[in-house]
Amino acid sequence: MKIIGLLLVPLASMVVLWGVITAVTATESLELREYKTVWTNLRLPAYKLISEIQRERLVSAKLLRHTAGPAAVAAQRNRTDAARDTFRQLSSTSKNRSEEIRTQVDAVDTQLDRLDAIRGEIDAGLSDRLHTVESYSAIIDTIFSLHRHVALIDDIPIYEQSRVIIDLGFAKELLTREQAIALGPVTETERRLFTQIVGNRRFLVDQSLSELDRPLRDADVSLISSPAYQRMRMMEDQIIAGRTPKSWLATTEALAKSFQESLMRASATLNARAEPIADEVLRRAFMLAGLCLALVVVSIAFSLRMGNRLSKELGALRLAALEVAQERLPQVVAKLRKGETVELPEVSVPSTTTEIDDVGQAFSTVQQTAVEAAVGQAQLREGVRHVFRNLARRSQALLHRQRIQLQDMQHRATEPDALEDLFKLDHLTTRMRRHAEGLIILSGAIPGRGWSRPVPLLDVARGAAAEVEDYQRVTVEPMPAERLAGPVVGDVIHLIAELIENATVYSPDKTQVIVRGEKAARGFVFEVEDRGFGMSPEELAEYNERLASPPEFDLADSDRLGLFVVSRLAARHDIRVTLRGSPYGGTTAIVLIPEEHVAEPEAPAEEPRRPMRVVRSE
């Protein structure tokens, strides 16, 4: 059934693809047909709302220049409110067509809610002319953003022309901004803004007319070549030069009205183009859907016939492969890790198909190669461990002899300088002995160093500090008198020494490394704290995971030998090592030694009682 299902996957994909192609093509036709609905419910009410807001902006500017009365302002505000209510009522029926349209309509509604605040500032005298113009302009900018997003359509020519018409509508908006700013004498700030708006409008008009289709641009070309438009351009230049031309309002009012009429005609013409294109797209959708359906039916019949013949042979091959992969091969690997002799499993699947036989033989070859590689890796690991043990044992023997000779030379030395050099050599020998023990630990063996009696934990910490190179930087603070069991003393000294050396290496030379110890509820705790640069949370998490679960030693990761040694020693004696950040910015290593390895302090020896002598008075 899985093999048949495997064959059905591409067939199901073809069915889905057929449905997607049909749906997408039909959706394109529906979207083209909905273009008119979007125009009626969103864009046309938005254009009417823009016109009313532009008129309110103009009459508000007149009010601030004391050329219009409150009655005219109130009347225009009522017309604006009516256009706003109409827009909200019509847009509510189309805003849920897509998330993008809903977002844009909500943004427009948010901006329209600012109208009352803008009007209140004007009535209270808190808003100047420039701030008033910019406040109304911000609302109009949001509505034009709605135009640009809802005008998206899959037909590229219609979309391009719609975008150009929207740009021309924004050019008309820039013209009305000029009109509101330059109603009379302007300030230096207003003149700078006016100059910027003029430049943007001229550029936008020139660019848009070059991209607009000839039937749509004839009216606009006639408009910008008219004497009234040229007279307006001259007036703009005069305003930019600092003068106040006459008849500015009348000239711009007529041109703005002509621009609006031309814009509405072009939009209606473009809207009418969508319907015949939608019909053609729908016809192509039906043809394409029928052809794809026929191909899907033929493909299903052919695939099911071929799949039925091969399903039994492939099913047998699958069962044999799963048996080897899930049962026999893991058993072989487990035996290899234990050093036992293994027999290679073979894959044998009776089949009349040559390709299936080849797959079975190839699978057997892969098994053979995998097992040989596992055997080679096991032998290599054992060989490396053996080399580590031999080299380390030899080094231990030589270092032991060297320490005996150094101790003898120290006893016989009389000069302070020579004695100091001998002490340095003895310290260096101690460090070399620790590194040799590290190789033994990595090989899986147990170092030979040990104690027969418990040792005070303070002496353990001091012994660990004496085995690092910068022992002068290590401060071992006083500790309780608990003792450590003799069999684990050597390993604990080695573990603490590795942590102290790591702390000295990764902290500045003149900083101290503090070693503390205290009794805990479940044993004894050592803290090794440095004042270095610390580690990131990711690095701390990685190292703590390695310390909690010692990984297999990797020869390629030789820079972290100390980490491997610490994790192995901790796992051997059930010691928990944790790294965390230090209050001084460095790192603190916490070593929790289980209570079974910790002995109580040794009771002080009692002094022998002296016999009492009675002295009689005479």
Automatic annotation (TrEMBL):
One Pfam family named in its UniProt record: HATPase_c
SUPFAM superfamilies: ATPase domain of HSP90 chaperone/DNA topoisomerase II/histidine kinase (SSF55874)
Domain Histidine kinase, first and last residues per copy: 492-597
InterPro entries registered for this protein in UniProt: HATPase_C_sf, HATPase_dom, His_kinase_dom, Nitrate/nitrite_sensing, TCS_sensor_his_kinase
UniProt entry keywords in alphabetical sequence: Kinase, Membrane, Phosphoprotein, Transferase, Transmembrane, Transmembrane helix
Signal peptide (from-to): none
Keyword flag Membrane: yes
Keyword tRNA-binding attached: no
Species for this entry: Nonomuraea bangladeshensis
Protein name: histidine kinase
Reactions catalysed, as given in the entry: ATP + protein L-histidine = ADP + protein N-phospho-L-histidine
Entry EC number(s): 2.7.13.3
SMART domains (UniProt xref): HATPase_c
Start and end residues of each stretch annotated as Disordered: 75-97, 599-618
Compositionally biased spans, kind Basic and acidic residues: 78-87
